Q: What sequence folds into this?
């Protein structure tokens, strides 16, 4: 029902410029109900200014307290001129939409003459002010279908049910908000590329490769890859990400056990030792965590040296509240897209993620985090500390900044896990994978 009523709303009014709503009813109960229905929504009822209150008060008289939502009582009930004056004054206030709650009685049992007066006053007020206005009722059955059809012909929406009305208004405002934003750069680039590809010859099309045989993760048919792609090792990837503001743990590339021992001894916390040149280290047991002493380091170094000639030593981030995965890939249709999800070793098990087009705003990223199934862990769960959400958002924005700076040659970027510590303690890219087109453009 909400979908159909929203489509009806959009057909008549289109989008809304904002979420500011004015509400009118002749019942305090209805005013309270509509206010309660707006709880936890972006739709809200702003307080009326002194001038706005004064204009409404002139129509209603001193017996009525003027607020938003407005209970205009029944002192003017049946007086079309006064009702139209009150409605017009409310519609002239600084609202993006004004709603009138009018519950018609059953035509089979009651005369509806007085309600017809209220309806006519409402129609005339809409004509006078040109405001966006909706007629609604407490229940869907409380507006006759004949009234709905007649108002539609006059360019006024009638929606049964206050909650459905607010849903439709919020969706219209959401769309209006989205349309205010500039078209994302990545989407515009993709459109130009798509147009050019339609005109390309078969010889040019042969240069497009869906995937290669490198050691990085398969992106299936969603990404465009060049046959000359190169995967940066973790040390290089983290160095490049740190340059744009991504927080990474302290770390050094080590070429000998003595060098590893020297750096580990200078680190106050336990360390992590990793084999470089391996994209998905967990699968090959190419990581040793929580190395605390020389004997553990010697054992780890001996094991990992068999997997790679170059190892990476870094400080271990302790007391993690949560782990995220931040992945950026190139979609053949939409360009660069970013996936934010529950990370760590359970990423494939949980499959909890949200995908955004780039560039994404801070609000987009915040909403994505809140929409994760595991969002409760970020906010503090069963007495555990809340994660440093501001640090996570800043880090994700920095990762996006790197991607946009390398929009011509970036094929894939993965940070997994992005470790979130408690509030005020930061967020750190504990592992990073970057795949670039060696030729400089992804074609």
A:
């Amino acid at each position: 029902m909400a979908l159909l009523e929203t489509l009806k709303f959009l057909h008549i009014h289109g989008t809304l410029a904002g979420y500011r709503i004015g509400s009118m009813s002749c019942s305090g109960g209805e005013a309270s109900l509509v206010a309660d229905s707006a709880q936890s929504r972006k739709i809200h009822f702003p307080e009326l200014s002194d001038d706005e209150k004064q204009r409404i008060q002139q129509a209603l008289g001193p017996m009525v307290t003027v607020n938003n939502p407005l209970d205009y009582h029944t002192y003017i009930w049946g007086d079309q001129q006064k009702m139209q004056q009150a409605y017009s004054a409310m519609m002239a206030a600084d609202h993006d939409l004004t709603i009138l709650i009018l519950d018609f009685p059953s035509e089979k049992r009651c005369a509806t003459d007085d309600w017809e007066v209220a309806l006519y006053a409402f129609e005339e007020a809409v004509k006078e002010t040109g405001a966006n206005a909706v007629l609604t009722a407490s229940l869907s059955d409380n507006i006759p279908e004949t009234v709905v059809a007649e108002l539609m012909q006059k360019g006024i929406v009638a929606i049964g049910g206050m909650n459905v009305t607010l849903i439709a208004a919020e969706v219209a405002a959401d769309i209006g908000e989205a349309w205010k934003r500039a078209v994302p750069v990545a989407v515009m680039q993709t459109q130009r590329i798509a147009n050019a590809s339609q005109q390309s010859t078969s010889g040019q099309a042969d240069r497009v490769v869906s995937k290669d045989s490198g050691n990085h993760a398969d992106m299936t048919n969603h990404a465009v890859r060049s046959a000359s792609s190169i995967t940066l090792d973790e040390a290089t990837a983290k160095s490049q990400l740190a340059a744009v503001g991504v927080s990474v743990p302290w770390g050094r590339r080590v070429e000998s056990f003595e060098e590893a021992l020297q750096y580990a001894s200078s680190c106050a916390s336990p360390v992590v030792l990793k084999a470089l040149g391996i994209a998905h280290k967990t699968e090959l047991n190419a990581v040793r965590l929580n190395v605390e002493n020389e004997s553990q380091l010697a054992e780890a170094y001996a094991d990992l040296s068999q997997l790679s000639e170059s190892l990476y030593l870094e400080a271990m981030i302790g007391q993690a509240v949560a782990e995220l995965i931040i992945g950026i890939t190139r979609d053949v249709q939409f360009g660069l897209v970013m996936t934010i999800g529950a990370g760590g070793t359970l990423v494939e098990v949980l499959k909890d993620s949200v995908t955004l087009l780039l560039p994404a705003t801070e609000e987009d990223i915040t909403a994505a985090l809140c929409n994760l199934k595991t969002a409760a862990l970020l906010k503090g769960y069963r007495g555990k500390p809340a994660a440093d959400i501001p640090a996570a958002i800043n880090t994700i924005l920095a990762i996006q900044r790197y991607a946009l700076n390398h929009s011509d040659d970036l094929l894939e970027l993965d940070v997994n896990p992005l470790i979130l510590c408690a509030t005020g303690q930061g967020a750190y890219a504990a592992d990073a994978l970057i795949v670039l087109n060696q030729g400089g453009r992804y074609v």
Notes: The chain has three domains: 2-180, 204-231+319-437, 250-315. The chain has 16 helices and 16 strands. The domain at 2-180 is CATH 3.40.50.261 (Rossmann fold).
